């Protein structure tokens, strides 16, 4: 599949040739490993028969193929390869499912081709492109998942959900083959009591930008601010139309990386709405630290979890955590990732940039306001989006957690507090 993906590439011929050679080498290596494992399986299967022949002091010609001992030896040999203990990749995915995800999500040119097929497939529904849409964003753990879920339940929105995996760029084609009706909810790995199932919406649209920008904004340690071309923007609008189920619905997405291309996106579209959430820096940093430690442990147990997060562009925490780079110079963070100071510095880097974006079009909402006054927050968004919301699922919540910052760098605390006050001045008042 990787070799086919390289063939589909429209890149420079020299670069394409290098990718073809690399894919061919990988395929030949995989073939060699597969043949080696097949040989090992045959050896293990025949080993008990060979031992039986030695013990019974028989030649191959003397073997009685109908003998009970021969049959038992062959039966034992046939199950030996399956007794080799292998670490299960993850409790949530079978090996076949993991393979299918790798075949689709690792191959960007194939994904582009599927995107093109899906556009032709969806034409019959005649759902027109729509410049009005809503993005919920913010630094991870700012409450973006909760607000997005609440909005989806309240209004006539369309969004990506877990059932769209792994054919994220061909949602309609995939729905014809796989459309789970049974909804079994369980708590997500964040340990925050948020439940999810196949029909739960999630931050999945970043894969679109990874494919169409070919991961150009992702470096070893950073996610870099970038511009998108008009072609990418137009494809993004077409992608939203593929996800929208009818002409009246509005596209909704949670995307914590959208800040990296927000100004570029806004230059093409003045109509769309975007919400940025923020919360108290020490509470936010504490939540990020907990998730970093939690996911690092998960990733030690299962390599697939890290691979999965990389596919979706989730580098907020864990072993492959990356820092937002908003300028020419990368931010310097002289703290260990296991300390609260590191995540306070991450908070400061993100919101220092956000507060200085010279654009009054984005909606800035404080997490505490959303918790305490969810209905008022939704009513404001309802008015902005010119939609009608259902408030039957809305309930307020009070956060009483106190964070000990006595061991933190006082200069860092002072800097984050100064930005926090500026955010409170700029935020929507409820």
From TrEMBL:
Protein name listed in UniProt: Uncharacterized protein
Stored Gene3D superfamilies: P-loop containing nucleotide triphosphate hydrolases
Organism: Xanthomarina gelatinilytica
Keywords: Membrane, Transmembrane, Transmembrane helix
Species lineage: Bacteria, Pseudomonadati, Bacteroidota, Flavobacteriia, Flavobacteriales
Stretches that traverse the bilayer: 26-51, 63-84
């Amino acid at each position: 599949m990787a070799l086919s993906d390289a063939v589909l590439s429209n890149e420079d011929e020299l670069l394409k040739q290098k990718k073809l050679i690399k894919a061919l080498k990988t395929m030949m290596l995989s073939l060699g490993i597969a043949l080696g494992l097949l040989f090992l399986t045959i050896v293990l299967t025949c080993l008990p028969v060979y031992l039986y022949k030695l013990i019974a002091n028989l030649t191959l010609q003397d073997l009685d193929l109908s003998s009970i001992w021969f049959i038992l030896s062959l039966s034992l040999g046939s199950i030996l390869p399956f007794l080799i203990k292998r670490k299960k990749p993850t409790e949530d995915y079978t090996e076949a499912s993991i393979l299918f995800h790798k075949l689709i999500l690792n191959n960007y040119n194939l994904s582009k081709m599927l995107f093109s097929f899906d556009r032709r497939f969806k034409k019959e529904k005649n759902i027109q492109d729509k410049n009005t849409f809503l993005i919920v964003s913010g630094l991870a753990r700012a409450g973006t998942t909760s607000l997005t879920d609440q909005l989806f339940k309240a209004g006539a929105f369309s969004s990506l959900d877990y059932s769209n995996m792994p054919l994220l760029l061909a949602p309609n084609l995939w729905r014809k083959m796989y459309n789970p009706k049974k909804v079994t909810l369980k708590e997500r790995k964040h340990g925050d009591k948020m439940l999810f199932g196949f029909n739960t919406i999630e931050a999945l649209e970043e894969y679109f930008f990874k494919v169409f920008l070919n991961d150009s904004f992702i470096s070893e340690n950073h996610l870099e601010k970038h511009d998108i071309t008009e072609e990418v923007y137009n494809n993004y609008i077409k992608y939203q139309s593929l996800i929208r189920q009818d002409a009246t619905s509005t596209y909704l997405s949670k995307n914590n990386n959208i800040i990296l291309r927000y100004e570029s996106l806004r230059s093409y579209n003045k109509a769309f709405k975007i919400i940025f959430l923020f919360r108290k820096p020490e509470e936010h940093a504490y939540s990020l630290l907990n998730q970093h430690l939690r996911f690092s442990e998960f990733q030690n147990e299962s390599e697939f979890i890290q691979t999965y997060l990389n596919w979706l562009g989730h580098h907020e925490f864990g072993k492959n955590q990356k820092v937002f780079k908003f300028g020419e110079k990368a931010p310097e963070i002289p703290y260990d990732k296991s300390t609260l100071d590191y995540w306070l510095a991450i908070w400061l880097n993100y919101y220092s940039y956000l507060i200085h974006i010279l654009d009054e079009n984005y909606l800035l909402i404080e997490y505490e306001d959303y918790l305490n006054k969810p209905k008022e927050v939704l009513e404001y968004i309802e008015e902005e989006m010119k939609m009608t919301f259902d408030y039957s699922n809305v309930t307020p919540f009070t956060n009483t957690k106190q964070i000990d910052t006595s061991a933190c760098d006082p200069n860092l605390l002072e800097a984050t507090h100064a930005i926090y006050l500026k955010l409170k001045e700029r935020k929507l008042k409820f």
